[in-house]
Amino acid sequence: MVVKTLQDLNTLVSLSKRRGFVFQSSEIYGGLGSCWDYGPIGSILKMNVKRAWWNAMTRRSDIVGLDAAILMHPTVWKASGHVDGFSDPLVDCKDCKTRFRADNTESYLTKKQCPQCGSKNLSEERNFNLMFKTHMGPLEDTGSVVYLRPETAQGHFVNFINCQQSSRYKIPFGIAAIGKSFRNEITPGNFIFRTREFEQMEMQYFVKPGTDEGFFNEWKERRLNFYLKFGIKKDNLKFHDHEKLAHYARAATDVEYKFPMGYSELEGIHNRSDFDLTQHMKFSGKSLEYFNEATKEKYIPYVIETAVGCDRLILAFMCDAYREEVTVQKDETTGKESEDIRIVMGFHPEIAPIKVCVLPLSKKEELTVPAMKIRDQLAEEFDVQYDETASIGKRYRRADEIGTPFCVTVDFETANDGAVTVRHRDKMTQDRIQISQLNTYVANGLRNFNT
Ligand code: ATP
Which of 166-180, 201-215, 226-240, 328-342 is predicted with the least confidence, judged by mean pLDDT? Predict the structure, then answer.
């Protein structure tokens, strides 16, 4: 058997549509640029990814959760620097009308040419603010302008004192949040890698100045271990330390993943100094200083930030999980060889959207009725699918394509022995298990899936 990994994002885009992971937004109207909808399987996958991150963050004794509003006071974005500085340089091709970013387009940087048609008939570079603007209330006057947040982090900063005082945590401590962000990206693309509406999972860790370097390194290691724990292959991950830093940053690194289009940023880890809290103190006139009762020290904490896009992480999980197992079969009579391909999404069991698929061997009622009962029994604890159409082989393949760890087959013996056959996605082993023991078997099997 030969195992092939993912070579091309289009393979994933079509699998996503076929199996209900991700659909293009407003597809029946021709789609809306770079917006995507998570389908029946994708929406569970997304919840599992968020839960994995949320638990890794908030089940620690030093991090609290936050769910802040998308709309914030407009001055937040002045203080944060987004109104004046959150922009990309934009260039228009006057011939083919392509619009592209001047700072990361190879043909423009090297030859001042349009990446689409090669023309040199280009506009000047213009700065384009990436924030979506809207109006609050019925009047569209400038007084009511609000922005869709381009990052979740500002919610953490403006709630620093609220979170610290209500939880009575001492520094070092962190605030974690998951939520939608919006950026009017000039060149979105690569499926769910860069979109205009996306979800971020950000954590800000507040530390005493002087201890920031140590915590920055700790968080680098923790975040790498998170990816390894959930099955991302080590060879597909690397750090990319920034040489050029933002004026407020003391250190910055990206965790990069080897996507089919090459290594690209998955997560940013930044030492943001006391920049954000200081800015909000200045613009709001409120103190965001921390007072240590024990030592009587008063200071503005430094912030170590870890920021990953949920959608980008889903893409990394999907790219990493995808495999094609190719076996060559020989026809006994004709001697002709043909390829059999099993497509498997080898998700970590906690990430896998559906944990068990229940399959009656035939559509006869004597099998479908008990199979539905078994489905209900399993559904009390797990996300389950029931599938009775097509041959058993085809149904196994469908379950493999969404990465289902276990398939349970109900056959004509089930009524006699009260047992079912459970097939393991990766080992392809089959165990005969009593129905009364099935939930325990699956729970243990998920915990020890790779052992
Ligand atoms: P990039 O350089 O890719 O534009 P960034 O450095 O601007 O990203 P951050 O502002 O640090 O990104 O945001 C943190 C994380 O949010 C990124 O690492 C990425 O995973 C995610 N993210 C940012 N922009 C987008 C987007 N347009 N679509 C999907 N995810 C995004």
Answer: 328-342
Q: Is the torsion defined by CA of 105, 106, 108, 109 positive or negative?
A: positive
For ligand 1, whether the C-beta of 88 sits within 6 Å is no
Are residue 257 and residue 162 in the same domain, yes or no? yes
Domain membership flag for residue 373: yes
From 46, 88, 200, 317, the mutation candidate for ligand 1 (largest count of ligand atoms within 8 A of CB) is 200
CB of 422 closer than 8 Å to CB of 408: yes
Phi and psi torsions of 365, nearest 5°: -60, -35
Residue nearest to atom 14 of ligand 1 (CA): 307
Edge-to-edge strand ranges of the sheet holding 2-5: 2-5, 322-330, 337-345
Q: Cα-flanking dihedrals φ and ψ of residue 102, to 5°?
A: -75, -25
Residue 421: count other Cβ atoms within 10 Å of its Cβ. 17
Q: Which of 319, 344, 370 is the C-terminal boundary of a domain?
A: 319
**Ligand 1 atom with minimal separation from the 202 CA:** 14
Note whether residue 108 is domain-resident: no
Domain range enclosing 405: 354-446
Q: What is the pLDDT of residue 444?
A: 98
Q: What is residue 142's predicted lDDT score, i.e. its pLDDT?
A: 67
E strands present in 76-125: 87-92, 99-101
Mean pLDDT, range 10-33, rounded to an integer: 95
Is residue 416 a part of any domain in this protein?
A: yes
Question: Do 254 and 370 fall into the same domain?
Answer: no
β strands within 187-233, DSSP E:
197-207
The string of pLDDT tens digits covering residues 419-438 is 999 999 999 999 999 999 99
Do 124 and 93 contact (CB within 8 A), yes or no? Answer: no
Alpha helices in 285-364 (DSSP H): 310-321
State the CATH number of the domain containing residue 242: 3.30.930.10
Using CA atoms, how far apart are residues 209 and 291, in angstroms rounded to an integer? 13
pTM over 0.90: yes
Query: Chain-wide mean pLDDT for the chain?
Result: 95
Q: Is residue 24 part of a domain?
A: yes
Helix axes 9-19, 392-401, angle to 10 degrees: 120
Distance 233 CA to ligand 1 centre (A): 21
How many domains is the chain partitioned into structurally? 2
